[in-house]
Amino acid sequence: MDEAIKKLHHDFIDQLSHIKSLSQIESIRIDYLGRQGKINGLFKKINEVPVNQRKIYGQNLNVLKKDVSRLIEDKLKELAESEEKERYVDTTLPGKKYQKGSLHPLTLAIEEVSSIFEKIGFIRVSYPEVEWEHFSFEALNMPKGHPARDDFETFFIDQAEDDKYGKVVLSPHTSSGQTREMHRVKTPPIKMINIAKCYRPNWDVSHAPMFFQFEGLCIDKGINITHLKGTIDYFVKEFYGQERQSRLRPFHFQFTEPSFEVDISCSLCHGKGEIKKQKCRMCKSGWLELGGAGMVHPNVLKAGGIDHQEYTGWAFGWGVERVFMMKENLNIEDMRILYSGDIRFLEQF
Ligand code: DAH
């Protein structure tokens, strides 16, 4: 009778190995473990076994029954797992689109600005973001207590003051690089493009506490306003397009004399301020403000160790965010979205 048990075990293993789906497994279970099944069939034959072998026969059948149940459970699990996997491999589904990284639009703008200036011989430099008050103000003709300093609200670093250079600040503008560059080069010509992070404690729809500026500085013998205007025109046409124009509007900055605000003609109305007798919705006046510029003040040249009798120079300092948004004709309600890391915004550039 032992042979019958072994055969049943063998047959079961063989049949189980051919099973490929959850639905098939139920029939093999009934076939072996059901009330009318093969294992119970052998239990019923116990009467035919010699009395002295019945105990061992019964034990062997119980082992077989347990083994069959365990193997069926294992098979069930295995099939359930692979069917689960198969459900995900639906070859008719459209492919998954993985998000691709790209350079931030401001990084692209910075690269473009620096390459435009590098083409005409300007050297890209970078100066400390954590800066002395001296280079941010005094060296730029804004002595302590001067009201012009109020325009540059500043983050101060909690560190001992230096007798010569004053307090430590987060650089509020790239102009702080002007006299640093003069000290570095010592003898003009100087053609600097300084693009850097700047910091001011402002937080609203048009200000972020950290932002970017780019500062141009050109010093040599005989440099005058026409060089400034020519360079601005070159930049405006390279960056915004050949049809765009620039103009200088008188203004005041402590570190330049004379000083200007630079405007560029609006891309929608081409400087007219109106389209079909309607006020242009983008600029209202025909012009858009780019930022400040001017002829370097003699006191700034002096602070940079440059002979102001012999040399003259011009400078400008503009916000990268502003210049970029004007290029893209972006009417952003809240410029802080530039720093939000929101992929839906960023992937448009
Ligand atoms: N530093 C000024 C600011 O942050 C911008 C500026 C104006 C820079 C005129 C210049 C300049 O170099 O000539 O608002």
Q: What is the level 1 CATH name of the largest domain?
A: Alpha Beta
Can you name the CATH architecture of the largest domain?
Answer: 2-Layer Sandwich
* Termini Cα gap: 81 Å
Indicate the structural class.
alpha+beta
Strand order of the largest sheet: 1-5-6-12-11-8-7
* CATH fold-level name of the largest domain: BirA Bifunctional Protein, domain 2
Number of discrete helical segments: 11
**CATH superfamily caption of the largest domain:** Bira Bifunctional Protein, Domain 2
Morphology: elongated
Number of strands: 12
- Major sheet description: 7 strands, mixed
Order of helices and strands: HHHHHEEHEEHEEHEEEEEHEHH
Proportion in β-strands = 15-25%
**Heterogens:** 3,4-dihydroxyphenylalanine
Low-confidence stretches: none
Number of domains: 2
Helix fraction bin = 25-40%
The pLDDT mean sits at: 93
- Rounded to an integer in angstroms, the radius of gyration calculated over CA atoms is 40 Å
Task: Note the topology.
Elements (H helix, E strand, L loop, with lengths): L1 H16 L4 H12 L4 H7 L6 H38 L16 H14 L4 E3 L4 E3 H4 L19 E7 L3 E5 L6 H9 L4 E10 L10 E11 L4 H16 L5 E8 L2 E10 L8 E2 L2 E2 L7 E10 L1 H6 L8 E8 H8 L15 H4 L3
Parallel strand pairs: 1-5
Antiparallel strand pairs: 2-4, 3-4, 5-6, 6-12, 7-8, 8-11, 9-10, 11-12
Helix pairs in contact: 1-4, 2-4
Bound molecules: 3,4-dihydroxyphenylalanine (DAH).
Report on this structure:
- The protein is of the alpha+beta class.
- Helix content is 38%, strand content 23%.
- It has two domains: 2-87; 105-346, BirA Bifunctional Protein, domain 2 (2-Layer Sandwich), CATH 3.30.930.
- A hairpin with a 2-residue loop joins β7 (246-253) and β8 (256-265).
- The longest helix is centred in the first third of the chain and has 38 residues, at 51-88.
- The chain starts with a helix and ends with a helix.
- Bound molecules: 3,4-dihydroxyphenylalanine.
- The site of 3,4-dihydroxyphenylalanine has 11 residues, from β11 and β12.
